[in-house]
Structure formats: C-alpha cells, structure tokens
Amino acid sequence: MDVEDNNDADRYRAPALDKGLDILELLAEQKDGLTRAEITKLLGRNASEMYRMLERLVARQYVVRSPSGDRYSLSLKLYALGHRHPPMNRLISEALPVMQRFADTAEQSVHLAVYDRGNLLVIAQVDGPGTWGISVRLGSRVGLIDTGSGRVMLAFQSAEQREHMLAEHTKVKGEITLDPAVLEAAYQEICRDGFSRKDSQQTVGVTDVTFPLLGPSGQAIAALTCPYLRRIDEYVAPSLDEATALLKDAAAGLSMSRDAPAQNSD
Length: 266
What we know:
Structural class: alpha+beta
Keywords: DNA-binding, Transcription, Transcription regulation
Oligomer: single chain
CATH superfamily of the largest domain: GAF domain
Number of domains: 2
Strand content: 15-25%
Protein name: IclR family transcriptional regulator
Largest sheet: 6 strands, antiparallel
Number of strands: 8
CATH topology of the largest domain: Beta-Lactamase
Shape: elongated
GO molecular function, one term: DNA binding
Number of helices: 10
CATH class of the largest domain: Alpha Beta
InterPro entries: GAF-like_dom_sf, HTH_MetabolicPath_Reg, Tscrpt_reg_IclR_C, Tscrpt_reg_IclR_N, WH-like_DNA-bd_sf, WH_DNA-bd_sf
Radius of gyration: 21 Å
Distance between the termini: 57 Å
Organism: Caballeronia humi
C-alpha cells in the first residue's frame, strides 16, 4: 500500500464502527460466547469502551447476553439479514442439485428450512421421482418446537442463542406444546446422534429424518429434512436406514463446518 492509500485509510476511519465489527467478528468464532473481560483482553481494548459497545449491540439485538448476564454471543440477526441478501440465493442454488440427487436416489422428497423470526421457513423443496409422496410447500412456515427441523435447529445452537430463538417463537397452526424437560432431552439426544429421526407429529405414517447444515462455528444455519414414507407394496424402495445415510451425506456436503456431526451407527 502506498502513502496515498495509507492517507485514505486514515481519513475514512470510523473507530466506533471498527470496535463493533471487531466484537462481531470475534464472537462469530466462538461457539459458547465470551465474557466481557475475555472480549476486552482478546481485542486489547479498554474495558469501559467495550462495555458501552456491547450494551449497544445487545440493545440492537446483534448480540445476546446469557441468562446469568456474564457471557455474550451472536444473535441470529445478522443471519436473518443475510436471508434478504443474495447469499441466501447462493445457498439455495448450491442445495438444490444436492437435494435433487438425494430425492432421485432415496426416492423420497426433501426440503430445506432456515430459522426466521421465531419459526422455520422452507426455502427449498424437491419431490421424489415416484407417482406419490409427501412434500412441504415452498415458503411455508413450520413449527420450531414440534418438528424435526425445528428441534435440530435448536439443538445445534449455543444455550444463549437457543433461549433467544425460543423467546421469539410464536406457535403456528396446530403446533403441539412440549414440556421444556422433554425438549432439553431431545436436544441432548440430537447432539449425541448428530441428527433426528422421529415419527412425524403432524402426519400419520411419516418418519421425519433431519440433519443440520452447519456453519463455520458448528452451529446450525439450516435443517435438511426428508419426510420418509415406507412403501408396503411389492416395489423395493430404499429403506429408512439407506435414506438416512444418503441424507447425512447430502447435509455434510452442504455444511460449511468440517465438524459436521457423525451419524450414530445404532
């Protein structure tokens, strides 16, 4: 960089903006958040200026504070803003060919959902190749609490982010209310197994299989779900286990994290 470039950089500096961006970039790399003292130390900043900046980021809902008030982590606001921006289109364009290959091989439909203002929004849907099947309409809002997609999205978040999502949640039509202890047990099971496979709580005869699409920090940015239907005629279609393995590979290929959860072999 020459002298003129250095002068331009100095001329257009915005120290307060730089501090806020430094905090956001630092927290983006932290799965479990950081205390104010840790943020101050890692950024080499003054404690009082970090306090003021963090309070403004919390007030604007870019950062959330833990229930105990001593840790800070990113909210999903930046992610939600990204939904309105072309990167979401890129996610869909990258996902659709992968989803089509899954649907053709597994002979099942598949849909992709992202978190949006307290529930999930279906942003991509591919039908299976057969003459019949089940699909979720593109653009539908589905429940955060009683669906495989919702529980997987919640399971692969920090505790603070999960609390924020649940606080934003509003029930959709027909949504089943579940006990918090049941939900907590479900999160632990999903994190242990790396995915969810449960009978649908909306439709009889459907087994929902869901894997997370993980971002760089290991948190779920989307959920990939196959509403599996078992054939009972003489046609031999891929089994539930085979479809689960295919969906696992599809989700791993779309995840940005190299630490995509492994499927339990049981």
